[in-house]
Amino acid sequence: MKITIVGTGYVGLVTGTCFAETGMDVTCVDIDIKKIENLKKGILPIYEPGLEEMVERNVKKGRLHFSSSLKDCIKGSESVFIAVGTPPGEDGSADLKYVIGVAKEIGEYAENYMVVVTKSTVPVGTSLKVKNALKEALKKRNISLEIDVASNPEFLKEGAAIDDFLKPDRIVVGVDTDAAKEIMNRLYKPFLLNGHPIYFMDIPSAEMTKYAANAMLATKISFMNDIANLCEIMGADVNMVRKGIGSDARIGTKFIYPGIGYGGSCFPKDVKALIKTAKQNGYDMQILNAVESVNENQKSVLFNKITSHFGKDLKGKIFAMWGLSFKPKTDDMREAPSLVLIDKILHAGGKVIAYDPVAIHEAQKFIGDNISYANDDYDALKDADALLLITEWNEFRSPDFEKVSSLLKNKIIFDGRNIYDGNELRKLGYTYFGIGVK
Description:
Rossmann fold, alpha/beta, 3 domains, six-stranded parallel beta sheet, elongated, 44% helix, 18 helices
């Protein structure tokens, strides 16, 4: 089965590579010529565990190809996936110009029946805009060609995307014709053989499912952060509370870990977009407005603890920061809480020296030389006034605390992810600050 993926960002590259892994003939297309040339050389634009090896393997097998020309590779494709970005506009709505632009281009070059699949996260109703763009382009060519549209939202977790794609909790597909359903069913047959469920539904429902899923997860995070803040005020321990409620099967243990706010490419953007979609249709998403507000405030919680301890003037203070990416196992810096904290520290006169296992190069695009970057975790600690734990990478979980104390100017730790035992650290002479704990 021949398929084309338009867009070689996180979603497009993972999708194309995983389909190739199942034996399909896949071409990933991007207008960024440099990115395509790098991919042909095995240089990936993103970090994702296991992806580089999988790309290399499928390129060698001749199943995975890269091109900067949709025109050259669309012929004979049974499906074309649109996996380009939908960045938030100034009003919070999803910007669909790239999605619609790709739809027009498909209409300009298509020569056979195919299913155009929106893999990008798009608002409800986007499929109609894609259909209209296709029809308009075909009309200009004065040809009669049937092209169906489907919605196939992604549910990939950065850092675990390959497993999520190859062993999905569920596959959601929105279609409105039997022909489109048949092609999508064949496309995902390798996954169905292993018992992974596929849910066919109408297209608007599929589009909404993606936003609803991310909004629910963001809600769990903000709810737990709100509870953590109240725990501190009331003298409760949020880690105990989390265990107490997580044992309830109706709640579960996932996404109830308190911290310094969610970030990344999905949750912030999708929550904003869903709020905006509701407003455009005369409805106020009261819960999601609160979710967004709590998250923005949570990104300042660690800074507030810092200034409560050191004072509002941080001039002359140096802070070692472990972790920059918004979560472990990714170099994604979009909406990362570290960016908010760094900005606040710098404005208060402090300095930051940071270390992250994979995200330093990406972080430099956002931060530049406004901070210093360490070669390893211990190198960041030299003469720092405190350690700030921002991203819970595995290598930060069990450090040599004697070595840490020998390098720090003050034995102070601000733990933004609650990965350390505050009582144990206090016994070692540390001053410890967590989230929602005594």
